[in-house]
From TrEMBL:
Transmembrane annotation, as ranges: 20-40, 74-94, 101-119, 139-162, 169-194, 200-217
PANTHER family: AT30094P (PTHR14969:SF13), SPHINGOSINE-1-PHOSPHATE PHOSPHOHYDROLASE (PTHR14969)
PROSITE patterns for this protein: PROKAR_LIPOPROTEIN
InterPro entries for this protein: PAP2/HPO, PAP2/HPO_sf
Native organism: Streptomyces albidocamelliae
CDD domains membership: PAP2_like_2
Domain of life: Bacteria
Protein name: Phosphatase PAP2 family protein
Domain named Phosphatidic acid phosphatase type 2/haloperoxidase: residues: 102-215
Amino acid sequence: MRQRPVVSPSRPRAPRGAALLAAVLGACAVLLLVLVVVGWHPLLTVDGDVSRTTHRWAVGDPGVTHAFRVLTDWVWDPLTMRLVAAAAAVWLVWRRAAWWSAVWLAAGVAAATLVQQSVKAAVDRPRPVWPDPVDSAHYAAFPSGHAMTATVVCGLLLWLLHRRGAGRVLWWTAVAAALVSVGGVGLTRVWLGVHWPSDVLGGWLLGALIAALAVVGHEWPRAGRADIPGRRPGPGRWSG
């Protein structure tokens, strides 16, 4: 009886999809970065118009402005988001013995911080200046560190929940919390007059890019091992 040739299974779609998404996000991030560096007039015009409008609202509504300062300084602050990621990494090791996922999470957040500070130093974009500021911030404007950190942390945590096969209620609750956090922190930074809108957009794009690259790095080695005929997957989703 003729034996059929062994056909290696195709790689899972997750790393390929993440790689494609990373390519698209990278192209968009580079394009925005170039437009900011060269001072493309239409972009600067939109930045100025939106910032002036939101600053006028911020000055005229001190109650909302105070609430936004609390949210941006305590709830969605980069340090807070990194502490959330650190707590998740500790839980992965303590409850699941998932050392690989814990190290991957910490490395992704650390890489985002390094990229953020490097791009800020390279671009050195001035922040908005107002005669009647409602808040202050340090260092260069592009990209928004708040928006970038929130995007990376939320993206990586959502991916871990997806791999775990979280239940529908937990999953959609996490998605809603991530969308509110990522969108909300961007709104607060523009409302408080410490970032141009394109700074926030740049933070979102770079944060999503790093999260997508991290997914590729997390899944591709496992996909490669799955291509070996006769090799069985590991004992659990969180192992390794």
